[in-house]
Amino acid sequence: MRASRYLIATQKETPADAEIISHQLMLRAGMIRKLAAGLYTWLPMGLRTLRKVERIVREEMDKSGGQEVLMPAVQPAELWEESGRWTQYGGELLRMNDRHGRDFCFGPTHEEVITDLIRNELKSYKELPANFYQIQTKFRDERRPRFGVMRAREFVMKDAYSFHLNAESLNDTYQVMHRTYCSIFDRLGLDYRPVQADSGAIGGSASHEFHVLASSGEDDIVFSTESSYAANIEKAEAVAPAGERPAPGEAMAEVATPGQRTIAAISEFLELDVKRTVKTLLVKGEADEDGNAGLVALILRGDHSLNEIKAENLAGIAEPLTMATDEEILAAVGCQPGSIGPVNLNVPVIVDRSAAHLADFVCGANKDDYHLTGVNWERDVPLARVEDIRNVVEGDPSPDGKGTLEIRRGIEVGHIFKLGNKYSQAMNATVLDENGKTAVMEMGCYGIGVSRIVAASIEQNHDDKGIIWPDAIAPFEIAIVTLNGHKSPTVAEAGEKLYEQLRQAGYDVLLDDRNERPGVKFADMELIGIPHRFVVSDRGLTAGTLEYKGRRDADKQDIPLEQALPFMVKASPRKGL
Amino acid sequence: MRASRYLIATQKETPADAEIISHQLMLRAGMIRKLAAGLYTWLPMGLRTLRKVERIVREEMDKSGGQEVLMPAVQPAELWEESGRWTQYGGELLRMNDRHGRDFCFGPTHEEVITDLIRNELKSYKELPANFYQIQTKFRDERRPRFGVMRAREFVMKDAYSFHLNAESLNDTYQVMHRTYCSIFDRLGLDYRPVQADSGAIGGSASHEFHVLASSGEDDIVFSTESSYAANIEKAEAVAPAGERPAPGEAMAEVATPGQRTIAAISEFLELDVKRTVKTLLVKGEADEDGNAGLVALILRGDHSLNEIKAENLAGIAEPLTMATDEEILAAVGCQPGSIGPVNLNVPVIVDRSAAHLADFVCGANKDDYHLTGVNWERDVPLARVEDIRNVVEGDPSPDGKGTLEIRRGIEVGHIFKLGNKYSQAMNATVLDENGKTAVMEMGCYGIGVSRIVAASIEQNHDDKGIIWPDAIAPFEIAIVTLNGHKSPTVAEAGEKLYEQLRQAGYDVLLDDRNERPGVKFADMELIGIPHRFVVSDRGLTAGTLEYKGRRDADKQDIPLEQALPFMVKASPRKGL
Hints:
2 copies of one chain form a homodimer.
Chain A: H1 21-28, E1 32-36, E2 39-42, H2 44-63, E3 67-68, E4 74-76, H3 77-83, H4 85-88, E5 94-97, E6 103-106, H5 111-121, E7 130-139, E8 154-164, H6 167-187, E9 192-196, E10 206-213, E11 219-224, E12 230-232, E13 253-256, H7 263-269, E14 278-284, E15 295-301, H8 308-312, H9 326-333, E16 349-352, E17 361-364, E18 370-375, E19 386-387, E20 405-420, H10 422-426, E21 430-432, E22 438-440, E23 442-449, H11 450-460, E24 462-463, E25 466-467, E26 478-482, H12 489-504, E27 509-512, H13 518-528, E28 532-536, H14 538-543, E29 545-550, E30 557-560, H15 564-571
Parallel strand pairs in A: 3-7, 15-16, 16-19, 26-27, 26-28
Antiparallel strand pairs in A: 1-2, 4-6, 5-6, 7-8, 8-23, 9-10, 10-20, 11-12, 11-20, 13-18, 14-15, 17-18, 20-23, 21-22, 24-25, 28-29, 29-30
């Protein structure tokens, strides 16, 4: 491509509303433009990278036996009513009416549509397993779209759905997809980690997320220092502290704590390590047959935070997790939220493993402005139910017993699920098994955030000059910058010749033939992040050389003119060369 | 691809609700499935063809200097309000509200979005001309979606938009796009015609449609028998009859025509050639400053039909064309619609060129149940305004003076427009010209119905066994059918070997290794329309041959086993072989 005939829409200024580096650089490098909140146009430069990501995803999906389909973006409400999600799915589902007043949505995901398709198409176990995928524009009406294409409302996703006679077959395909995802992210040149994830809301028995490691990531992911254990924070297990609970050493006493309503305030007021306190959170319990729901108390060590997903997954707790209001607490317990404690509490109590290991701890007295000190489980308050309900913290032991946990930030770019029969059961998607009996299919689903990957890659690959693309997804692999080509026909001609030579060898080349100052051209090519750069100048041509600089190189080097192609083939091997 | 691991979703029965052959065959060949009215899932087999069409369109657009972008499907209402189309666009615009209650639409076209983008990105005439395109899923909420993907609500379109400093530059790009479209449709193997089209509603000065000729087409297109003149029926000019209008021969007389209200009835009742009658249609006139609109009479020869587009484009007539109601006619003229005529009519009269050439004609007397005979222009009624307001009919003289007109049915697969400054003016899209002065850009827009092309191709390429794909867009180019491969390892092995050989040579090959009867496999491959078929059998292998049959061939032929590849290269040449 000749830059003089191409939209090079670089910008010097960092856009004010772009918070993270990938968003800033995608705008500055002229890859995207905002149309409205969470809606972006992909400019030519950005679309080239997006299409390369798509191609890698497609090739690996095909290689693993996936069959590409394309389902409508607009989906009828009837199918979502069958699965129950028309009412369950919240504000992120963009709903609409057609001209006849019928309900539709802009699909954020396609479980219902594919299940409907497959229940009509596949009749026999002989046609299983089967795995269908699409690469498609989806819509999720995010309350707070932000970070550019990282959390856009309209985005490109690869979604795949597999169908099986039984759980073993699902498990096989799940493993294949796990490996396929690793191949995809390897080829994309990403530093990523597959981590165990909670599969709660979507259902099913297992789930892994694939995270690109980046400080701007919105998710906490957890690793063991000494094993391959990795999980997202929602899923990472907080194991019980080692050893026996210490024996009681103090007598329980009520102390006045006027105006002290937070854990921090209490521990300062009583001059006590926060780890000796517990906090008591009241949440809604599961509703009974008549729809009445009482409250449930969750007890955590003062320095720990509630893991809402873990809590929500417990029996007896309403889903989604709902905190009791101040009024409900006052009515049930008779005090303000800051003064609740487990002793003599008239609601069921669930104690976190770490809190359950405390002795001589401090808690609210269920009376405003009073706390209890020297409290001990069993002696002062029964320890009926102990569960893992907290987020792990750095230094916690790894659940597999090897090493301790580290926490890093990740950007979720892939997610694979064993759905089991959640959708197939609800929508009656069955086949005949070997014995001619009707069997509900098992399903898996497998997503990749295609457009998000573009941003995630930039989060990992940039410097103060701009983006640094891996060769595989660079909009152009090579930039040829001609210096004063509009004045020097020799330079212009040599530039064209090199351009044709490298292009015909199969490289994506951008010939920067613009009538711009060298500094402007260099800055643009670096901002755009093209991995390989040749400079054609009169000075060089006189000496029979080109200047080469890799985007990550500290120094330039001179290459004999006729060595350009062999040099490139060595730097970035090409099939058949 | 191995058929045993691929969704071959063929059906024997012709679906009841599929009216046209392409819709029937796309369903029967397992290319698409209906999700809801006008919403189709592309199954793997269909998607392969769709992607090949996309690729050809993309390659030719790139070759002609188009720059690919990807704009959001969901568009904010504000932009459509700027252009005025938010209110003008009818029920086909799928409107929706996001979670914050803001108005959006699912884009049926992207003039507003691209104009908004370009007015922000391009500042100088030096950056012009520029041509941006996308291949994207669009939505048009058709009142009556039908014919499968031919007239679906959700569909894939290539839309391109060019920007220019002046009309000359627009004209150049328009010509380039005209040639590009011809290259695209040539490569797609379509029998098509570019025809002049009306550019009324979208505006602009010129427009051509590209029609695939097919009897199932919904449009009438008009050709000269002796020149390259071609236009759609909306645009095709009906020239005035040759020679002078005959002199009056009869006296005007009023005759009673009790109950005779149609042209057919009148001409039968009066035993008169229908070509001696005129019909008078009353339509709404253009509203004056106060919003009041009178009626206008349109006079046509009895055997001719009104061309609504031509009428609507005339000064003095309301847009869109609106027929007067019976009540309005009664109030204005004092009679029923079937008895109106131009003589002493108290509304302005516009006479079609052919009607204006009549002498001694019959018309309504503006009095129920009475007509006038022997009426003559000028003598009995002034001939104030003569215009071309009728549809041409077969046998009319060609407007270029060469030959007569033929009418055939066409499927519109492409449309190019000179938009002029309709959008750039309304949305203030300007650049600085050579003199540093602000200039409103000229625009062109260029559409191709990508998914419709798949259906249109089938309308032209099928027989009673199924689809007959051109090589360029066949889902697979070659089918290898193994006979009893599950019983004969020799056959299975030879099939695999041939499959690998042809695949590695760059052909898209479907190896039909299914455990099905030969008849089933042959029927499926023919229904799917794969252009080249090899059969591997024990009998053939013993003789060292394969059987070959082209999809259009009457007879099979035996090919020596080792000649398969050279044979294919000859039948369907491959780059580099």
